[in-house]
Specification:
Order of helices and strands: EHEEHEHEHHEHHHE
Strand content: 15-25%
CATH architecture: 3-Layer(aba) Sandwich
Radius of gyration: 17 Å
CATH class: Alpha Beta
Shape: globular
CATH topology: Rossmann fold
CATH superfamily: NAD(P)-binding Rossmann-like Domain
Number of strands: 7
Number of helices: 8
Number of domains: 1
Distance between the termini: 32 Å
Structural class: alpha/beta
Length: 237
């Protein structure tokens, strides 16, 4: 990245992986913003009120970011929700809400970001998927579908915009050390850990490091790739 930094947008930067990504870009000297319903964002991050399920709200948020920080050059589409449940009991609403946020929401922000990236003939788009998208997960047909769909989105963008200096990649985290995993019963944690060749959960910062690499100059010839950060859990999928 240039010495003066880039304008970076990280959706869902209030907690977890998104927060770690935003903090890492801030520490590296970049101008960082997030679109969120919450103002509880890391220091140095511009919080713009918005909703990725609303195209008009996404457009308004981008306009504010462009006015205050400049055109978005790096987009990290991280915002996501879960509505877990067995398929036979899952409602249409639970299925559609997860896809609307996780998949269609990522499409909305990527579509809006691409306008400035095309003009600049430069752009880095990183979609935060999950090992569940390719490995599968019982009770997560909606979440798995939304995260698998991001691979298709990234590869279509690569075909469309690769000749304009724009890359689109997918990062697929596995189990991450968070308050949620810390709260799991010890026996359940052991079961999960037994399936991970690395025998540990990842830190959110390990995911953030991969995202930062994909946004940087050394990754300019990587596009349409799926980078797992899962300790080997999903290898081969």
């Amino acid at each position: 990245m240039t010495p003066e930094g880039r304008t970076v947008l990280v959706t869902g930067a209030t907690r977890g992986i998104g927060r770690a990504i935003a903090e890492r870009f801030v520490a590296a000297g970049h101008r960082v913003a997030t679109i969120s319903r919450s103002t509880q964002v890391p220091d140095g991050v511009l919080a713009v009120t918005g909703d990725v399920t609303d195209s008009a709200a996404v457009d308004a948020a981008f306009t504010q970011i462009e006015q205050e920080l400049g055109p978005v050059e790096v987009l990290v589409a991280n915002a996501g929700i879960t509505r877990d449940g067995l398929m036979m009991r899952m409602s249409d609403e639970d299925f559609e809400q997860v896809l609307d946020v996780n998949l269609t929401g990522a499409f909305r922000v990527a579509r809006r970001a691409s306008k400035g990236m095309i003009r600049a003939r430069f752009g880095r788009i990183v979609f935060i998927s999950s090992v569940i998208g390719l490995y599968g997960g019982a009770g997560q047909v909606n979440y798995g579908a939304s995260k698998a769909g991001l691979v298709g989105v990234a590869r279509a963008i690569t075909r469309e915009l690769g000749g304009r200096g724009i890359t689109a990649n997918v990062v697929a985290p596995g189990f991450i050390q968070t308050a949620m995993t810390d709260a799991l019963p010890p026996e359940q944690q052991k079961t999960y850990l037994a399936a991970i060749p690395a025998a540990r959960f990842a830190s959110a910062d390990e995911v953030a490091g991969v995202v930062q690499f994909l946004a940087g100059p050394d990754a300019g010839y990587i596009s349409g790739a799926v980078i797992p950060v899962d300790g080997g859990l999903g290898m081969g999928h």
